[in-house]
Design brief:
- The complex is a heterodimer.
- By secondary structure, chain A is mainly α.
- Chain A has one domain: ACP-like (Non-ribosomal Peptide Synthetase Peptidyl Carrier Protein, Chain A, Orthogonal Bundle), CATH 1.10.1200.
- Chain A is about 55% helix and about 0% strand.
- Chain A is built from 4 helices and no strands.
- Chain B folds into 2 domains: about 60 residues, Alpha-Beta Plaits, CATH 3.30.70.100; about 280 residues, BirA Bifunctional Protein, domain 2 (2-Layer Sandwich).
- In chain B, about 35% of the residues lie in helices and about 25% in strands.
- The longest helix of chain B is centred in the N-terminal third of the chain and has 21 residues.
- Chain B is globular, with a radius of gyration of 22 Å.
- The chains are: A mainly alpha, B alpha+beta.
- Chains A and B meet through helix 2 and helix 3 of A and helix 9, helix 10 and strand 18 of B.
Chain lengths: ~90, ~400
């Protein structure tokens, strides 16, 4: 799956799951999802589950410590590299 | 007495520290406990007649709770300044000099140089931090509505800490009867059992909750507000109450930011830099590292590991050679929009984010005396300079 497609799927999921209004100018693919409060600790668990199921990749505790996964773009890049076996 | 032994799978220091902290809250039937790292076991002793299987279930539940968590337990050391230190029993020294008096479980009175040291630490915070950030002074009540704590999610994170407050019922017979019984029999808890009103307040467990409740419904101007306050806070710690390092009633000074994310994050980072400069100036033997709160609920693993991953909590820990341990004397916290959402505080059309830095004042006194002793002449140059200037000019 292309990284752009992963990005769009993730963005759509987060917008719907966390009820982010279209008028929210801060919400971009590069916004820090946790610092800006879009996703909290339990939302992060949910988001990791979604990534694993939707994109058929494994995400370990070690991955969560080793790789930056705070923005939609960061999560999409990680997912794409993991799908291609490059991580 | 009955004994129960449970095998430990995990013996990492962080895990054992969490388990040791939590075990006193296992049950009121608990008499004592021991966590043995070398034998990889926990031994708990409880009163005869206690259901042993139920007790084992509770121990298993606690041991499971503190496993690594969904996001791992990321550990980052930002600053490490260690010195060779003498071994000083500061608590014994404080009591011997009558600079401290224990007047109840986790309740201590400080006097003389110990009180001056506490005041000096607070004076330093105001001089360095409150001025740097143009913090507005706020003054808070010592109690807080239970409803406010619920909005802060305090009960779903730290239920064990709560010291609820109540009063005798507004009932002439109850009031007269209580007073009369105290006069004739002397006071005992039994005299007010069942005669109290609803516990709708608690003694404040933290300073900054008041800042958020005081701003409920506010629309902030960019980039946000910085506040400072000092408060006598209460946290019930069961058998963990010890010296000045874990008090039930203690003094907390905070600097709090509520506003736009980039502004709060940048201010927090600057405060951490200033704290490290202070630690260097006073030659503290300490580390500044990532940490997590001791969430006392079964969702510990999610909350603590997420807090670690996001580096939402960092602590300055001062070495206590006498205890072969260290204690946190300063914490730096980032809450994202937790309190902005809880109290409807907005900025630029979004929930405001918040962060705070906090100093546990009695812990500073204890750690400074533990590291440097009771003679100011032998203290590090920076600490002695500030103490002398403060006691000559500013102290009462």
């Amino acid at each position: 799956m292309e990284v752009e497609e992963i990005t769009k799927t993730l963005r759509d999921y987060i917008v719907k799951r966390y009820a982010i209004p279209a008028s929210d100018a801060d919400f971009t693919d590069d916004v820090h999802l946790f610092d800006y409060g879009y996703v909290d600790s339990f939302g992060a668990v949910d988001l990791v589950s979604f990534v694993q199921q939707a994109f058929d990749v494994k995400v370990s505790q070690g991955d969560l410590i080793a790789y930056a996964m705070n923005t939609i773009n960061e999560i999409a890049t990680f997912t794409s590299l993991r799908q291609r076996g490059e991580l | 007495m009955s004994n129960l032994t449970v095998h430990l799978e995990n013996t990492t220091p962080e895990y054992l520290e969490q388990v040791r902290y939590a075990l006193p809250f296992l049950s009121e039937e608990l008499v004592s406990y021991e966590v043995s790292e070398s034998d990889r076991k926990v031994v708990v002793v409880f009163r005869p007649g206690t259901d042993a299987e139920a007790m084992r279930g509770r121990v298993d539940q606690l041991l499971q709770r503190y496993q690594q968590g969904q996001f791992g337990m990321k550990s980052v050391l930002y600053f490490d300044q260690r010195h060779e230190l003498p071994v000083i029993d500061a608590w014994a020294g404080l009591l011997e000099r009558r600079w401290a008096a224990q007047v109840g479980e986790g309740h201590v009175i400080l006097r003389g140089p110990a009180a001056q040291l506490l005041a000096l630490v607070d004076h330093k915070v105001i001089s360095i931090f409150a001025r740097e950030f143009g913090a507005e002074l706020e003054l808070y009540p010592s109690t807080i509505k239970a409803e406010t704590l619920h909005r802060c999610n305090h009960f779903t994170s730290f239920p064990e800490h709560m010291d609820f407050v109540s009063h005798l019922k507004q009932d002439l017979n109850v009031l007269s009867g209580f007073s009369s019984a105290c006069r004739t029999e002397g006071w005992s808890p039994a005299l007010h059992e069942g005669k109290m009103s609803a516990h709708d307040f608690a003694v404040s467990p933290s300073c900054c909750y008041h800042a958020y409740e005081g701003m409920a419904g506010w629309v902030l101007d960019k980039p946000g507000r910085c506040i400072t306050a000092i408060l006598s806070c209460h946290r019930y710690e069961g058998a963990n109450h010890k010296s000045l390092s874990r008090l039930r009633s203690f003094t907390m000074r905070e600097v709090v930011w509520v506003g736009q994310p980039a502004w709060v994050i940048s201010a927090r980072a600057r405060a951490e830099e200033l704290m490290q400069q202070w630690a260097k100036d006073w030659e503290l033997s300490c580390t500044f590292e990532s940490s997590n709160d001791p969430f006392f609920t079964d969702d510990f693993a999610v909350k603590a590991s997420f807090q670690r991953k996001q580096e939402a909590k960092r602590e300055l820990r001062m070495d206590i050679p006498f205890e072969k341990n260290s204690i946190s004397v300063f914490s730096s916290n980032f809450h994202a929009t937790t309190f902005g959402k809880a109290f409807d505080i907005t900025i630029a059309g979004r929930p405001a984010v918040s962060g705070c830095v906090a100093w546990g004042c009695e812990r500073w006194v204890y750690a400074l005396l533990s590291q440097f002793g009771f003679e100011p002449a032998k203290w590090p140059v920076g600490l002695k300079r500030d103490y002398d200037a403060f006691t000559a000019r500013d102290a009462l």
